[in-house]
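Please, structure for the following, as tokens.
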Amino acid sequence: MKSFATSPAASMGGPVTCVSKVELRVSCKALLDRDTLNKSDPCVIIMVQAQGQWTELDRTEVIKSNLHPVFAKVFMVDYYFEEVQKLRFEVYDIHGTHSIGTRDDDFLGGVECTLGQVSCYVINHMLLVHAEEISGNNGYLELSFCAKKLDDKDLFSKSDPFLEIYRMNDDGTEQLVHRTEVIKNNLNPVWEPFKVSLISLCSCDEDRKLKCLVWDYDSRGKHDFIGEFYATFRDMQKISSGIKVSWDCVNPKYKQKKRNYKNSGVVILSDLKLHRVYSFLDYIMGGCQIHFTVAIDFTASNGDPRNSCSLHYINPYQPNEYLKALIAVGEICQDYDSDKRFSALGFGARIPPNYEMCLSFWHLWMLCPYRPEIQGVVEAYQNCLPKIQLYGPTNVSPIISRIAKLAAGEGTIKDASRYHILLILTDGVVTDMADTREAIVRASYQPLSIIIVGVGNADFTDMQILDGDDGVLRSPKGEPVLRDIVQFVPFRDFKTASPAALAKCVLAEVPKQVVEYYSHRAISPMSPGRGPSPPALSPLTSIPTE
């Protein structure tokens, strides 16, 4: 399981979706009773399969003496449309207080399925699994409840109250949202604050009814009912206006039998904090444009383009590795840029008319007419090859610095209107490694992500340091990056794979990087449909050459 919730879909040119966080909630019905004197004490273990091996992901709490348990524990997993994610749910009757699932515990049953099959419910006679997608734009709540003058249900001491909150679903069913801890021997309990997503609480419907139950805890599982009340998220929000929010906790039986009955106590919402959590799609749907720049290595180590052994050889029947990587990544990125005016840069070559060494980089559009979209970049690449002389060295720091400078200029705009992706295609380890590390550290403060694809069979071991996956990338002076913005992959790892596999790999971290940048700067998404139109940048003047 990956730790972050967002990742682009692997579909090429189609709708792009984000990997979703999914909440799994488990309940059981009509469990087998394996105990002699009372009922089973059930617990559910959820397991995931990775590389053919089952490993435990998490487990529910143990509910005493109950054959129809509704577990409060929520399992959080990432859902990847393009992957088969196998799950196993095992139900045990627990006898000890130590390891669950041991020989002392009774196995009551279980089910195997995929996460895709749990898109709504999984039912296996006794096991019910409910899955909900957690969308980033819903945020989450931090709620604090207390109660006053609850009924005393105990003979020799006071009640041990706990609170349960259920969401009323459209089909009439009830879904447990949260169960508080038990407050011992107290008729005026103050429960610990807890966090819950808005979609879990009310499916983002402010007027959806919430059924709230107050119980007196019993260690044998036979809890005494104190009372209930109904609330909505709209009711709860009144606390933000300084209005006291409370509910009468009512026992319907007492209300029916006792003429002067008022309530069995009062439950009070003492605090509510709403935290917004934005996703990659929130920014994209708000109008954020992704500007795509490609930089291509034209150093002599690639070989003479006229030779079929060259990495730049144009085979009329099959694209070379440079073109495969360019098309795989570019066709996805172009869907996020409304004007599709891409910057295409070259480095490491002598260019006409004087064929002098270009110390930093040059625009492919200088040698051929400009055309939009990724196909225009492909044609520019093919057309410029006969006009240039491959030379060297493999210096990429000037390109990173220039794109970072361009992104920094747009970073002065206090909205989430534009983000940059720089794709660098190279056949070897960069020769200006120290300067490149410094440039990446500087760039990590800007709205920029960098993808480096190693083409050919060179030893790219030294390039892995730029990725930062094995540790924090630092400048030569020891300054760490603010964000991990670089993804490096050797193309040879994807030679036999589909183009979508390469795109999925190199773009997988971009959604997280976009969210991290705007979150760090406390910039919210723009309102959908109200974002500014992206500026019409000229490919010849938007990034001055040096």
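Confidence is low (pLDDT under 50) at residues 1-18, 529-546. The longest strand covers residues 70-79.
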